[in-house]
Amino acid sequence: MSYKKFDEADLAVIKDIINDPERVLYKDQINEEYSHDELSGTSSYPDVVVKAVSAEEISQIMKYAYNNNIPVTPRGAGTGLVGSSVAMEHGIMIDSSLMNHILELDEENLTVTVEPGVLLMELASYVEDHDFFYPPDPGEKSATIGGNISTNAGGMRAVKYGVTRDYVRGLEVVLPNGKIVEFGGKVVKNSSGYSLKDLMIGSEGTLGFITKAILKLLPLPKKAISLLIPFPTLKQAIDTVPLIIQSKVIPTAIEFMQREVIIDAEEYLGKKFPDSQSDAYLLLKFDGNSTEEIEAAYDKVAKLCLEQGAIDVLISDTEEREESIWKARGAFLEAIKGSTTYMDEVDMVVPRNRVNEMVEYLHNLHTEVDIRIKTFGHAGDGNLHSYILRDDLSQEEFERRMELAMEKIYQKAKELGGQVSGEHGIGFAKKPYLKESLDEDNLALMAGIKKAFDPKNILNPHKVFQP
């Protein structure tokens, strides 16, 4: 695809639309962070960065870009891990981080309406202050809601509550041609034609620019208690997960972790974890409206874990303990990152009853490929995160071993009935693996949807499945 090279004449039009020079960054004004996302493996600078404050501004920019064939890249907080928000064709980057207002809390319809730049942690805090609950809980709390929707982010509470898609009622979207449209709304049920809203969720900014979201809320659970359960071996820990699922007691979260990752987190945070002596742990969370309700739920699971060889069941029933455990869990990614020179990630998902097979495979793979691999994840929903570490390897050798490891991991996930990504998306970096995992009919349908929304292919080109 041939695009117009952004020039001074285009800049003049953009500045006229924005009418605030501090919100238009050009050439040397563009911070290095705008050239990559969180893992920085994919890098490319935009020609201009526009910090938009309204759907109308984005509409005007998109209309100009569409008429002049200039590529546009949507950008939120830049916390992605697959290059979704990297400007591969340069052009215009629209940063929505200043569109960070909570517009309405509708207590009658149990919804909250937000702009895309609202941070996940800000939204969670706001609704909790009003005795409501927004369940999606991705690990990166400083990610924007627009980014969460664009990747259909999941997080730890997906076991019980589902993922971002399950909480999006309506969207305001700027299409690639600049038109502002609304998909969905505050209604609970909707069987009115194709669900265009759901096409936007998880589309990684390739179909339209999200400028407003209506999100579903739940009443806030009154109490939460976590169980930290040490096991002698990884196999015993992970083999217990399908049994917990079968017990029909649904925890809010079921996480698994290994001692080496906990030690990384202790060093990173400078704080001791409540227990770091065992090889493997399950971390379970239960919520409800009373201590009695939660105790009835976790008692059955605790007994089951002890029957399967758990060393102990540590109950985190104080706010201090709860915070120390989950703060350590939240620091795993940064802790692993700090333990090596560079890393790349694999975010795969398998059916819940195959998690134990996938984890065992990942645990043994490092010896086969001769590279350090650290793994943790959401054992209760089958979404696992593996990090391939460079350490002292040369760039060439690292890439060779990393690609081999990734091919093997994704192939194993496919064998187990899984998919390439559970919540991070495909972006630019993981495209080859998506193409290997899907048949040609699926890819052709995706290409047709992209063409229907964006016939000139100006919005976030080269992402997900595109060449």
TrEMBL record:
PROSITE patterns noted in UniProt: FAD_PCMH (PS51387)
Essential cofactor(s): FAD
SUPFAM superfamilies for this protein: FAD-binding/transporter-associated domain-like, FAD-linked oxidases, C-terminal domain
Annotated Pfam families: FAD-oxidase_C, FAD_binding_4
Keywords associated with the record: FAD, Flavoprotein, Oxidoreductase
InterPro entries registered for this protein in UniProt: FAD-bd_oxidored_4_C, FAD-bd_PCMH, FAD-bd_PCMH-like_sf, FAD-bd_PCMH_sub1, FAD-bd_PCMH_sub2, FAD-linked_Oxase-like_C, FAD-linked_OxidoTrans_Type4, Oxid_FAD_bind_N
Residue span, FAD-binding PCMH-type domain: 42-220
GO MF, any single term: oxidoreductase activity
PANTHER family: GLYCOLATE OXIDASE SUBUNIT GLCD
Listed name of the protein: Glycolate oxidase
Lineage: Bacteria, Bacillati, Bacillota, Clostridia, Lachnospirales
